[in-house]
Design goal:
This protein is an alpha+beta fold. About 15% of the residues lie in helices and about 35% in strands. The chain has a five-stranded mixed beta sheet, with no helix packed on it.
């Protein structure tokens, strides 16, 4: 016969609460409008002698600071009738690459890149865009929140 003490019940309750909090944080939605805004890069309007602070998507080299950096990997996904095209799979990119993900859905939704905590609103029929520097290595799911579709798994090496 197992006897539960108040200390044991408290420990179990704390463990359950911590697990729930971790699960919610891992897939939390952000209503902040800045989440949906694509990252911006410096323009070439600055004179050659001007120095501009690098943005998160800009390379740290002086030549890239004066122009828009080229995207290293363009990933385009279309969702229609809950079908993902191209079909769900893994896409590998190199660490440090500039990645642009463009998603068009036939229903309004929200795009989310786990691990990078990036997202974009997806109005029905209108492409949503997320652009970022792949600076974290690992395996990251890219999904929609409302329809809960896994679009692909991003592998950064």
């Amino acid at each position: 016969m197992s006897v539960r003490t108040p200390a044991r019940r408290t420990t179990a309750a704390l463990a359950a609460t911590a697990l729930t909090a971790l699960l919610l944080v891992g897939c939390g939605q952000d209503d902040d409008p800045s989440v949906a805004a694509p990252s911006t890069a410096p323009t070439s309007d600055a004179p050659p002698s001007a120095t501009t602070a690098p943005t998160p998507t800009a390379a740290a080299t002086p030549s890239a600071a004066a122009s828009t950096p080229a995207v290293d990997r363009q990933i385009t996904v279309t969702i229609a009738n809950r079908r993902v095209d191209p079909p769900t799979g893994r896409i590998t990119v190199g660490k440090g690459e500039l990645v642009r993900i463009t998603v068009t859905s036939d229903v309004s939704d929200e795009l989310h890149v786990h691990g990078y905590d990036l997202g974009a609103r997806l109005p029905a029929g209108t492409p949503g865009l997320v652009e970022f520097r792949a600076d974290k290595t690992g395996l990251f799911e890219v999904e929609t929140h409302e329809t809960e579709l896994v679009l692909f798994q991003l592998v950064v090496r």
